[in-house]
Design a protein that fits this description.
Elements: H1 3-11, E1 15-20, E2 23-30, E3 33-40, E4 44-46, H2 48-64, E5 70-79, H3 83-88, H4 90-106, E6 111-120, H5 121-129, E7 133-136, E8 141-143, H6 147-154, H7 158-167, H8 175-181, H9 192-202, H10 209-216, H11 222-231
Parallel strand pairs: 3-5, 4-5, 5-6, 6-7, 6-8
Antiparallel strand pairs: 1-2, 2-3
Helix pairs in contact: 1-9, 2-4, 4-5
């Protein structure tokens, strides 16, 4: 689904979302409240400029519109793999975006992420996964690393990883596996406006991902290990 169709499905004609390059920003009306919208399109690679542009929208919302909910629309191929961005410290710019979202959360803004097309690698972490809750459309594509790349990094053969991915969502790409692991709260089908309304009503600042992963059988140890560390 392209971003224009998504905006219409979510808000009808009651939105003022614009595109500047690969960055989406603006506002929209949902029932009786105004929503701040920020995101990316066309499989954007998150470089220095995009990270700063998204962070600026979040900071403007915090400063000028206290308590306004924020919707992060995700379509990214990950962080930009260019020598220039690495030299400038792309990790710091992405961390800045993450810090801005965390400041919004602590300032009373509900933050909801929606993967509507593609979410890959590190670009997904600060542009959607960091939200209070992240959701996805069924046709979305989500992965951190393809199995061939994972094999090169871990030094585990691709055949072994392929076998593990059959029964263990941690090793497998795909939106359903991210639901099983708790990274995606749920898939939105049918009435997207109703789904967003429900998500905003149910969203809390409590991180439920490890708990969801344990209940769904996709990440069985995380919640238990976290509890033990907190209790130590």
């Amino acid at each position: 689904m392209n971003w224009q169709d998504l905006a219409t499905a979510l808000f009808g004609e009651q939105h003022h979302i614009i595109r500047n390059g690969d960055v989406l920003s603006g506002t929209a009306q949902l029932q009786d409240q105004t929503i701040a919208v920020v995101g990316t399109t066309d499989h954007a690679s998150i470089g220095v400029e995009i990270a700063l542009a998204q962070a600026a929208v979040v900071l403007d919302t915090i400063q000028n519109y206290p308590g306004r909910p924020i919707l992060l629309l995700v379509d990214t191929q990950g962080q930009r793999l260019r020598h220039r961005d690495e030299l400038l410290g792309i990790n710091r710019y992405m961390a800045h975006m993450g810090c801005c979202v965390e400041l919004a959360r602590r300032s009373g803004h509900k933050v909801v992420g929606l993967v509507y097309d593609q979410a890959l690698s590190g670009g997904f972490i600060t542009s959607g996964l960091i939200a209070d809750a992240c959701y996805a459309l069924p046709e979305a594509e989500i992965r951190v690393m393809r199995l061939p790349a994972m094999a090169r990094v871990t030094k585990i053969s691709e055949d072994v990883l392929e076998a593990l991915s059959v029964s263990n969502p941690v090793f497998a790409p795909g939106v359903k596996n991210y639901v099983a692991m708790g990274g995606i709260r749920s898939l939105w089908e049918g009435d997207l406006r109703a789904a967003l309304t429900t998500a905003l009503a149910d969203t809390t600042i409590t991180d439920e991902r490890a708990k969801d992963g344990a209940l769904r059988g996709g990440r069985t140890m995380s919640a238990n290990v976290t509890a033990r560390v907190v209790a130590a």
